[in-house]
Amino acid sequence: MAQIIRNFLNQAKFLPFWAMMVRNSVGELQPTKLELLQAERDQLATRCGTLWVQQRNIEVQLTELTRCIKRIEFDIRLQEKLNPKVENKAKQNAIVSNK
């Protein structure tokens, strides 16, 4: 792929891509700017996929946590309905303790 791009650039020196070709001090061809950008894009795409999976995992954990909180709130309300006398005594004791 790189050789094809280099051949094209050698034949079409008038194109602005010619400025992207860099030679080092020995005269060997360095990767073109286009090749570097493609490699960076591939790395970013891989990182994006990894971050998407992590985000999905966090969303699942958040959903599970919300369910647990709702379940606990329901249990507290149910307990208050079943034992209102005990709850009232506890509240009264807490009020007396605060005074």
Structure description:
The structure is a single chain. The protein is rod-shaped and about 95 Å long. It has one domain (1-28, 44-97). With 99 residues, the chain is mainly α. The protein contains 3 helices and no strands.
Short description:
This protein has 99 residues and is an all-alpha fold. It has helices spanning 2-11, 33-82, 84-98.
Q: How many domains in all?
A: 1
How much helix, percentage-wise, in residues? Answer: over 70%
Strand tally: 0
Radius of gyration: 34 Å
Shape summary = rod-shaped
**Separation of termini?**
82 Å
**Average pLDDT across residues?**
78
Topology of helices and strands:
Layout: H1 2-11, H2 33-82, H3 84-98
Give the key terms.
mainly alpha, 3 helices, rod-shaped
